[in-house]
Amino acid sequence: QQSPPPQQQEETVGPEKMSLPALFWLFLTFGMKAFGGPIAQIQMMKEYIVLERKWITVARFQRVLAVYQALPGPEATELACYFGMVSAGRWGSLLAGLGFILPGLLLQLLISWIYKDYGLRNNVVTASLTAMQLTVCAMILNATYKLGDHAFREHGKDFSWLLASYGLLAFLLTTMEVHFLITLAYVGLAHVCMTRRQHQVAWRLLAAAVLAGGFVGYGFFVKAYGKPGQIAFSSSGLSKDGSYGGLFALGLLGGLLTFGGAYTVVPFIYNDVVVASEQVTPQAFLDTIAFTNVLPTPLVMFCTMIGFLISSIGGALLISLGMMLPAFSFTLIGHQLFDCILDSPVLHPFLDGISAGIIGIVMVTALDFARQAIQTGLHTAVFVLSLLVLQQLKHRLTPIILILCSAIAGHVLFYED
Could you give the 3-state DSSP secondary structure of residue 270? Predict the structure, then answer.
């Protein structure tokens, strides 16, 4: 069967004006089938709503997706909110987004309860989780590579050594324990300066002078007070007392930092709940990511399990609300507004610089995870094998199958009576 000509592909019938219950049900069914990560989730909505139902043109869909890829938040959830908006206004946007995340959220709560009450004291589960943690370490490292391949390309096309240098700089600053907000602000502003068309030399000299001044200031600080300590990601310990307000704030911070993919938020949540607050063990943190990878839900929803481990169902719901609030708000406030803002000659390069810088921060955490998880030669073998599978098999279900296989293998390799 021949493909229709381009002009036919761009024909639309316009957004279908659905009732609120029907719209909620449509996206609830999407949520039930949302396995395989954001690419599979986005493709599922594109095939049904854009190609089959023809609510909008393919060109318009690509533009909408580009906007949400530049903004923080899970793109699939933001697209669900967008399609709900064009069909039934703001209430439609809210119900479409809720319908999309509800199946995964309910499954997360169930698994969190089972894990918290039974999983930590079961030798069989512990053995499986040991292998799953090693696989998750490989997944994070592999995701960092793929995120970098996208973030280090100018306008998504040619590789940019300039953008890659921001990732390296962020990596160095993070290992020096400079606060992540300072790091991200600098790389964002540096890219604004480096891409200015007028007075290029002056702007680039300014960026270099600020960087040099920062390193000199850091040297004086270390000489006077010592290294900053564990504040490279979060000095506040928002989850330290397990309060609902602190967990909501932590989720909101995470939701505002998910540039380019869910793995970009991992360092910030990890360093709050594991390093600063010591509410969750490193092993349990990796378990939350492993379980989320096999559920029909956006990967950022691993925070639901984190919240449950700290403050039961109330903590789970509030940290999830904070994490998802930016994704809902961008559409509810107005997609067209952000569409215009992202064309700004200042804001767009600023976000590009931040996206590149986050890769360096994520890499620090990915290597730290691997260092903690890999203790023996057998651990190394499982980690390397998982990484090779992820590199060679690009199917959307590969992570799910790999997690399940590692759970079975872990029972064989690591079980102790």
Answer: helix
